[in-house]
Specification:
Helices cover 24% and strands 37% of the residues. It is an alpha+beta fold.
Amino acid sequence: MPTTVVRRTADLDDVEHLEIRALLDRAFAGDFADEDFAHALGGMHALVHDEGRLIGHGAVVRRQLRHGGRTLRAGYVEAVAVVPDRRRQGIATAVMDALEEIVRTDHDLGALSASEDGIGLYAARGWLLWEGPTSVLAPEGIRRTPEDDGSVFVLPGPLPLDRRGELTCDWRAGDVW
């Protein structure tokens, strides 16, 4: 029977880092860059094991999002993945249950950028598609990210959101959303 544990990045050892990276490489068929992996570090990880084998992973990292003149503490979900031979068995649900608890407890809202494969999972769990324009606070200032419009989802928290308004994320290397 699968078990889920939540761990801080700082508490993961080298072997666990390698296991997570290997799972992500398998799950994303080699389309998971070093920058993508770096984005998943520095927060909390939900790890699902079955008989000692890592079969599911997801992370929440803190990011700052700007919306409606406010800076919001976002729990940004990264690197949600299940090994191919264990998909459609509730593993992603276990990962998201743990991550959403962290988001609801410690952040103003949740946010993520969904792949085509993930849209159904997130929408079914109550994550809402951001309908307005997306932007990034880049070194040169606020820059629109139209390529990310239609892929950003939020899990609302206690603060009101206008999902048709602009949502701006903080800068990072690689994919900003």
